[in-house]
Amino acid sequence: MTDQREEMVSALQDEVLSEMAETFFAARKAVDDEMELFRSREDDLRRAAQRALCRAGWLADLLTGPDMAGQLWHALGVPVDFMRLAGGTDACPHRDVPFAWTRSGRYEKLLLEVYEDTWRAFDCYVNGAAATVPGRPGKVRRLGYRRYRQWAAEINRMVDKVNSDHSPSCVLGMARSLDVEGQEKLKVAGSGMEGYSCALDATLALPRLDEDVPQLPDLPELPPPAEAARSLRALARRIWNERRDRAAEAMARVEQAQE
Fold this sequence. Notes:
The chain has ten helices and two strands; from the N terminus they run ααααββαααααα. By secondary structure, the protein is mainly α.
């Protein structure tokens, strides 16, 4: 009877230890998988930022320079710090020049359309476009820069919870507590986990993410085209009157790209 009882106790201990180990490693794997997915999307966002800045640079070129571009952003209530990052207009995909009866009309319409392209690129970067999640059929995530930063904070909360609720010393301590005979020997020897547990937890703790995501620019949200149209039209007419030659040259570069 004693042997049967010892076998049952041993089997129960093995089952408990197996579940503890499975829970411990499953919690860590869940964090690792989420971090891997998080890092895989950084390149997508970096490319989205480049597209947005490229179009902002193209818009500034059509506006005949950063001074007029700055006046537009001020009129629309948009912070202008991002302008120092804008550029690379040669890499932008050019669009057709819209039809109008006059050159000034074509310039105005082109400016409106390029602004819409710029707004769409900024919105895609800041707020994200709906996309499927790799390895998770049917799951769609709208991921932009803002959501990406929130996601980093959510992952850090997962990290803190795993480090707290599934610490190595806690799991090892629970495993040792199942070994009654071993516990008695430790008490007699005067040894335990003290001093060892802190070092173990510090060494095996999961690292937190940098929530600032310094590799990605913090771009502003632009007003929708319908809200910006009045300011754009007014500025287009002013530029055509004051800088007609430069505006015509900028439009000619777009026309040449169509050829």
